Structures are given as structure tokens and as C-alpha cells.
Amino acid sequence: MRSTFLPFLFLLPAALAHRAGRAQEAAVSPDDADWAIIHLAEEHHISNFDPGAFFSLHDFDSSGGWSPDEVRRTYGLDDESLKDVSEAKREEVTREVFKLFDADRNGIIEREEWMVRCARGARLPDFGLGPGHHGDDEYEYEIHHFEKFHDENTKEEDLTHPEDIAHFAKHEREELEAERLEKLNQQAINEANIPAMFRRQP
Predict the structure, then answer these.
(1) Burial level of 132, CB count in 10 A (0-12/13-18/19+)?
(2) Which end of the chain is more exposed for a tag (fewer CB within 10 A), N or C?
């Protein structure tokens, strides 16, 4: 593991400290909880469902409405863990959610539509795809692994779980690729390597 990851280790305890209270307070979802409640508990460490807050949290572009892409992202369909889900299943998710909440059938679930439908008892269906991972790699690693198996006292040499190794190996690959591209960008152009038809003519 390269020393460039040490800043990550120094910053992570601070991030965990302000989240610790929420993580401990988030109740374990009961077996009969609907999908949105399970999603909030597992993905956001929030123990209560508020329709307005849930809508805003998943209005990723802050447009005031959910697009089909935002619904798919909410269900985690952009996550690597669901890469093998069929296109038919992806379309089913969007179709069924919009059938429930897009009252005017305009292809956007507006906040007001969402609030009215929730007040009438409509709930996001559970399609059996898991809790909906839609954070970036750092966020998902933190809440689904680091917070469960490590803490603010964790040292670099303690990060030996397969999930730790895979996480930092990905960082390593990305850093090496960035360094390679940087070196390429700094290289002078060797005109001898340019086909004659593309060279500047005097």
C-alpha cells in the first residue's frame, strides 16, 4: 500500500466521528419494513422515513423531480454489484415506480406527486435488488465495511480484510494510471512518430 493513502486514514476518523451518533441511532430495520425504510437505514444511517426528506435526498440533480435515471440510481442499478441485472428488470423497476408515483404520466415524478402518493399509502416496491447502493466507492466502502469492522483507532497495518485490500488496490491502479497519463502529457511530440500525411507542411 502506497504512503499516498495515509491522508485518507487521517481524514476518515474525523468523518466517522460526526457520523457515529447517526450510525448508532439508526435502528435495525424490522422484517416488515418497506424498501425505502431499509434503504435509509442501510445506505444513509437514517432511522426514520420522512417523505419530503427522502425525495430531496434522491433528487440527485436538485431539479424538483425524479427522472427515470434517478429512480434507477436510487435502486442502485448503476452500482457495480448490479451490473448483471437484465435490461428487462431495469425497465421493470422504472415502469412500476412511475406507475405508482407519476400521476400525470409526463415521465417525471414531481415532488408534489410523490408527497400526495405517499400520503395515500403508496410505497416504493422491493424488487429484490438489495438496499440500493448509490454512493461513490469511498462512501460505500465506509458505510458497508469500514464502519462495521474498523474504527477511529484503526491503523494502516490493520486494513487486511479482502474488502480493504480490494479498495486500496483500486486506488493504486487509478493512481498509477493517472501518473502514466501525466507523463504522456508532459512528453514532447516526436515528429518522427507522426505519419507524413498528418505532419505540418513547410
Answers:
(1) buried
(2) C
Q: Is there a contact between 107 and 55 (Cβ–Cβ < 8 Å)?
A: no
Q: Are 76 and 133 in contact (CB under 8 A)?
A: yes
As a whole number of angstroms, the distance between CA 62 and CA 150 comes to: 34
Scan for cell 435502528, then name that residue: 27
Per residue in 102-141, pLDDT tens? 999 999 999 999 999 999 999 999 999 988 676 556 655 5
* Closest-CA residue to 21 (of 147, 139, 141): 147
The whole model's pTM is what? 0.56
Q: Which residues on neighbouring strands pair with residue 109, listed in sequence order? A: 66
pLDDT digits (tens, 9 = 90+) for 169-197: 776 777 777 777 777 677 666 666 777 77
E strand or H helix at 66 = strand 65-66
Tell me the backbone φ, ψ of residue 65, rounded to 5 degrees.
Answer: -150, 155
User: Cα–Cα distance between 13 and 8 in angstroms, integer?
Assistant: 9
> What cell was used for 52?
419530503
State the Cα–Cα distance between residues 71 and 69, nearest whole angstrom: 5
SS3 109: strand
Cβ contact 65:108 at 8 Å: yes
